[in-house]
């Protein structure tokens, strides 16, 4: 049998001697035998026993149950109360102060064997309980320290970050950046009321998606949205994380993308204007990549070529037989501004036109990535100009002939 250390607090000397002898015969160590409550507390503080056997009445204390309560509750030592027939009224108080056990007198060896087993089991349970409590305390302390570190990190992040209860929607935390964004600390308020001035849960709330069927966090949810209170657009990252109390809560990291959204809108508007100009321009516009392959052309360019859009897309400068036309495009691909003026018949098409073209290289980081051709069909202008020149020549010849006729008809010497 495993030996334990015991202090006996008994006002009746004969009973104390009997109990001590039984315990010693059982192989246990009796550290002290006392008659008063004060002496019991003093001996317990000094000798730290595994068990105190205490009569409910002592020399200095007609109700020793409170003394036993101090030893059990404040000092953590199990107390077994002993009581006689006349002490029945104190049993209930004894159990309240030390619920380990109470035994009636006279006490026998079999009772003490049971007492020791009770204490050993109670001690074992108490050790396990204390160990569990300590582990829980350490776990909570680690979680608290981890959350404090997390709070410090979150407060340094230049983004709106908040934590909320996924069941009650209460805001549990706002970082410094978000407090500044909203002008105040909204901790303790309901998130959809505080952040959106809504009376009901937000329609886009994804709390139900943040935990899987086993109650574990799912992957980060990423989405964009507009906040009506701050009047800003945000890129939101939502996830469930364990909080100080071990419960999973929602954390959202929201990055202000208002400027980006405005830039995107301006870009879309610019692209739309470019597209409208491209499609409706009366002058031909053609795009080609850095290999000289046509990637796009407008309707005016299709008409100039006298073919279809589909026939021209994907055709290459290497297929062009007109040397001056092809050389001008190649020159632009080398990074130089190039021009072409002359008669040209496209690879796909039978229409021959007199073209005036400007080939413009498009560069990024000093390298040509593509090019744009601005092409105008000046066939009619060319023909008009040629006709004017021919007319001027005819008129010049006619004037010369008239002068010669006048000289013939009117000689100088006549």
What does this structure look like?
This protein is an alpha/beta fold and 414 residues long. The chain has twelve helices and 15 strands. The protein has a five-stranded parallel beta sheet with strand order 2-1-3-4-5, sandwiched between helices. It has a five-stranded antiparallel beta sheet with strand order 7-6-10-9-8. Strands 12-11-15-14-13 form a five-stranded antiparallel beta sheet. Helix 4 links the parallel strand 4 and strand 5. The radius of gyration is 51 Å and the shape is rod-shaped. The N and C termini lie far apart (170 Å). The mean pLDDT is 86.
List the topology elements.
Blueprint lengths: L4 E5 L3 H13 L3 E6 L2 H11 L3 E5 L9 H10 L4 E5 L4 H10 L3 E4 L4 H47 L4 E5 L6 E4 L1 H7 L8 H6 L24 E7 L4 E11 L5 E9 L1 H23 L3 E6 L4 E4 L1 H7 L3 H4 L10 H11 L4 E7 L8 E12 L2 E11 L1 H31 L5
Parallel strand pairs: 1-2, 1-3, 3-4, 4-5
Antiparallel strand pairs: 6-7, 6-10, 8-9, 9-10, 11-12, 11-15, 13-14, 14-15
Helix pairs in contact: 2-3, 3-4
- End-to-end distance: 170 Å
Bulk shape: rod-shaped
**Counting H and I runs of at least 4 residues, what is the number of helices?**
12
Please give the number of β-strands. 15
Mean pLDDT: 86
**Largest pleated sheet:** 5 strands, parallel
Helix content range of the residues, please?
Answer: 40-55%
Strand order in the sheet with the most strands: 2-1-3-4-5
In terms of structural class, how would the helical and strand content be classed? alpha/beta
Alpha-carbon Rg, integer: 51 Å
List the keywords.
single chain, about 425 residues, alpha/beta, 5-stranded antiparallel sheet, 15 strands
